[in-house]
Specification:
By secondary structure, the protein is mainly α. It has ten helices and six strands; from the N terminus they run ααααββαααααββαββ. Helix 1 (24-52) runs antiparallel to helix 3 and helix 4 (131-157) packs antiparallel against helix 6 (201-224). The longest helix has 29 residues, at 24-52. The two termini are 25 Å apart.
């Protein structure tokens, strides 16, 4: 019996979703259920933080990580960063909990009652070595990311605005549509902290606008075209390879987020996250507040750094396996790419 045909019962439970690699229906169920857990966490933590929140105390000293992110979006925020209305936080938390129930139901249905394998010609059906389908799925994800970036632009322009720590007020923000500006930040021509040097909300919102455009163009391109021959030869087209690519991207984003939350006080206002941090090395890297206070910024910076670090290990592990390295034997076995179409 080949590894691809190995029954799910013979694969250890600790393999997680790897047991479902060739069972697209059940893997969809796990995917939806995972989304439900994430949404449930967001709703539950929002309501928990709301239950312990004291408006008379600085938000960053109360061990909060979700409410500060809502506050910087201008939700419930008044002058000087004061929280003047907590009801929107309750609504947001409740909506996330309700949504998680629907996602959880969908996940359980596909895991327990739905077909084990989806028809390849259906919208959600696929084969790992079908390069056209894989790039179409990539394109759909890019379109969704573009929509998310546009939502930030819409919030800044039309739906209440964002909190601006430079003036201590929530205000509407008109994007800076000069495409040279985000390129200058990306190339390190502005400031000393790369992208995290951004110091105007107009530049932040303009950057999200161009990210939305690029993601949308990339999404349409990948949905409507087939990979070039050199692309097919360059990449490994397998479930484990896709996992390694995804975790690698997560690692990169976690490190970028670490830099942003550590030093940028525009998109992470001190009123909600505490003062900017300094990076120190003893035995391990750590991000600390200048006065040693364990602020929300400290928690977020350290959490993002270590998540990025372990994501990177996961990326290397799965990339090596996808490339043919067998850890149990300590050597590279012959890589079987299979027929890619």
């Amino acid at each position: 019996m080949t590894a691809a045909a190995q029954p799910i019962e013979t694969i250890p439970w600790r393999a997680g979703n790897a047991r479902l690699e060739n069972l697209s229906g059940k893997l969809l169920g796990a995917h939806v259920a995972h989304a439900g857990l994430i949404v449930f966490w967001a709703g539950a933590i929002t309501l928990f933080e709301l239950s312990i929140f004291d408006p008379a105390q600085p938000m960053y000293e109360q061990g909060l990580i979700v409410l500060p992110n809502l506050a910087r979006l201008g939700i419930g925020t008044g002058g000087g960063g004061q929280i003047v209305n907590t009801y929107p936080y309750f609504v947001i938390g409740a909506l996330h909990l309700i949504s998680s129930a629907f996602l959880g139901f969908g996940g359980l249905f596909h895991a327990l009652k739905g077909p084990e394998t989806l028809a390849e010609k259906s919208f959600f059906g696929y084969r790992w070595n079908d390069s056209n389908k894989m790039t179409t799925i990539l394109g759909i994800h890019l379109l969704l990311l573009g929509m998310g970036a546009l939502l930030i632009v819409a919030k800044a322009m039309f739906f209440g605005g964002l909190y601006d720590p430079a003036i201590g007020q929530v205000r509407s923000v008109e994007p800076n549509f000069n495409f040279v500006t985000p390129i200058a930040y990306f190339l390190g021509a502005k400031g000393s902290f790369w992208l995290a040097s951004v110091d105007r909300l107009e530049d932040v919102v303009g950057g999200h606008f161009y990210i939305a455009i690029l993601c949308s163009i990339g999404g349409i391109w990948h949905i409507s075209t087939s990979p070039f021959g050199w692309v097919k030869r360059l990449f490994v087209w397998s479930g484990e390879a896709y996992l390694s690519y995804s975790i690698g991207a997560l690692s990169l984003m976690a490190f970028v987020a670490t830099l942003f939350v550590s030093v940028n006080t525009l998109v992470f206002p001190p009123e909600f996250f505490g003062p900017a941090l300094t990076l120190g090395f003893d035995r391990f890297p750590s991000f600390a507040s200048p006065d040693g206070t364990l602020t929300s910024r400290v928690w977020l910076a350290n959490a993002h750094f270590w998540l990025g670090f372990f994501f990177l290990q996961g990326h290397l592990f799965h990339a090596l396996r996808a490339a043919g390295y067998e850890f149990s034997q300590g050597k590279v076995k012959e890589l079987t790419r299979g027929k890619v179409n």
